[in-house]
From TrEMBL:
The keyword Signal applies. The keyword Signal applies. Residues 1-28 form the signal peptide. Keywords: Signal. It comes from the Eukaryota. It comes from Anopheles merus (Mosquito). This is DUF4789 domain-containing protein.
């Protein structure tokens, strides 16, 4: 269900990003993740992608194996980051459809299980119009005075820095909806954002280190 933005709407959107898994060492996609409960299955549970694409500045020839989220963010505050850290061999964003086919039988490697009260989110960070990095995650979305939306995008400009947060709700048995595409849900277009009527605030509420 998509939200309808009217001219009278004065809702303030508060996106609380729960950083559930955040560590200082780079986790490889091949490294086993013991946090996955045996009963979890992508066919019966909806998932959201959860990882950070390091951006076009990094590729297979870039020394990245010892980098952490701190290296990528460079002390920038309010920007989420999740392991694993993903690179591509060109300036294209990750092929999330391919990634899901490779890891759907062990989804916790690149995804988080969507639970009630949360949404899937894709957080894009640009500087002077150029993409810097993208983080995919599970998040909480609190909407004041309006019903929550299953597919919406919110933008905010900060002195040349553009932040775009797109949220959606995945369905069990399908590719996580916060994939690398303009359309976030099957057959559902991204809802427009009224920049003058909505304010997006990011709040990091919890960090736990992977062991």
């Amino acid at each position: 269900m998509s939200i309808i933005f009217s001219s009278e709407m004065k809702a303030i959107y508060l996106l609380s990003v729960g950083l559930i898994y955040f560590c200082k060492t780079v986790a490889s996609l091949e490294e086993p993740n013991t946090t996955l409960a045996p009963v979890e299955n992508y066919k019966t549970n909806p998932y959201c992608f959860r990882f950070t694409w390091m951006g076009p500045k990094y590729n297979k020839d870039t020394p990245y194996k010892n980098l952490s989220c701190d290296n990528i963010l460079k002390k920038a505050k309010g920007i989420p980051c999740f392991h694993p850290l993903v690179i591509t061999n060109n300036t294209n964003v990750p092929d999330t459809n391919y990634m899901w086919e490779e890891y759907k039988d062990k989804p916790s490697q690149i995804a988080c299980r969507l639970v009630r009260g949360e949404v899937c989110a894709r957080y894009s960070y640009r500087y002077n119009g150029a993409i810097e990095n993208i983080t995919y995650m599970c998040a909480k979305l609190n909407v004041d005075n309006e019903s929550s939306t299953s597919t919406s995008c919110f933008k905010e400009d900060r002195l040349g820095r553009e932040i775009e947060v797109c949220v959606c709700e995945s369905a069990a048995g399908r590719t996580p909806c916060n994939r690398s595409t303009i359309v976030l849900a099957d057959g559902a277009p991204v809802a427009p954002m009224m920049l003058l009527l909505a304010v997006v605030q990011l709040l990091i509420i919890k960090c736990l280190q992977l062991r």
